[in-house]
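Hi R.,

Here's the chain you asked about this morning:
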Amino acid sequence: MKLIQIDKARYRKHLNQVIIACVIGLAVGSLAISQTLIALFPDPSGSHFHWNLLGVVVCSLLVGFVLNKYRNHDYMTEIVYVWELKKALNKITRKMPKLKAAGREGNADALLAIHYSYAGSRLLWQLDDNTITMDELAIKQAELDSVADKYNLSLDAERYDESILKQF
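And the predicted structure, written out as tokens:
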């Protein structure tokens, strides 16, 4: 997955609108489904927990289906890109201890994956205005650059491919 610059204002606007639509859809849909089930199949004891739970589950599945159906729509471009980037970074994070150990020994693929992780994190944190941890990231990047220099390696996030993680 290539790192690209996306329009922060458009991303935030679309993300907020999708979140609001999902919340409203879940609330209204869950209530509508559960109230319909309660009206059709009343429980003499007055406990309708199972119908309420079923309403939430069914509506959650419907919202997930709709999000998946429209994931290729132009409106969702930035949102889906960020979701996919977070998924890619999560894969790297799960292997980070092995990557760091191999990186200290000069493994170019490990250093490249770590570099990609730092660059992707920087992009995400800028989109979410999470600048508090940027200083810590800069320190880690400087350490990574010194290791890369030690082994005469040039790190470019554009060269990263997820398949290199299989060796770790």
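The chain has two domains: 8-71, 78-167.

Let me know if you need anything else.
M.
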